[in-house]
Amino acid sequence: MKNKLTSFTKILLDFMYYAGIIITIFVPAIIRLYGKINSYFANNALYLSIIFIFSGGFAVLIIRELRKMFQSVLMDDCFIPENVKSLKRMGTYSFFIAAITSCRLLLYLTPAVLIVILVFVIAGLFSKVLSGVFDKAVTYKLENDLTI
Question: Do 57 and 21 contact (CB within 8 A), yes or no?
Fold first, then answer.
């Protein structure tokens, strides 16, 4: 690896990916357990399980795309069409998470839910805009490679 930050980022992305898969699989059990402490979770276990499973699934997909992009960083080849596609997908997944989280507003309105929705809408917009920037960079890079 190039340096400590790169190594740490790779380890963190790998951990988040695999932990995310495991946690998403066990969401119903986690909600049942937490429902013993918090009656809101006990009373809405099925609905919350569905929301968190789908949100978790899309979050794992975002991390998968980040891991793919990070591989291109490690190989010193960032401006590739695959990264443009990854950024577009990440934007779409972020919008799905925002939409799914909005369903939670039907159960209980909290500032935290509103913030999560806002964060994922902004992340989705940012990813879509960045995919356009990367697309231009890929075009320039390919044109430059052809001239040399």
Answer: no
Q: What residue type is 139 in one-letter code?
A: T
pLDDT of residue 39: 93
Q: Taking 60 as the threshold, does the pLDDT of residue 148 lie above it?
A: no
pLDDT in tens, 117-144: 999 999 999 999 999 999 999 998 888 8
Structure tokens at 96: 């799905």
- Say how far apart CA 34 and CA 40 lie, in whole Å: 9
Closest-CA residue to 120 (of 81, 87, 93, 86): 93
Q: Give the DSSP letter string of the chain.
A: --SHHHHHHHHHHHHHHHHHHHHHHTHHHHHHHHHTT-HHHHHTHHHHHHHHHHHHHHHHHHHHHHHHHHHHHHTT---SHHHHHHHHHHHHHHHHHHHHHHHGGGT---HHHHHHHHHHHHHHHHHHHHHHHHHHHHHHHHHHHHH-
Phi/psi at 23 (5° precision):
-65, -40
The reported pLDDT for the residue numbered 8 is 93
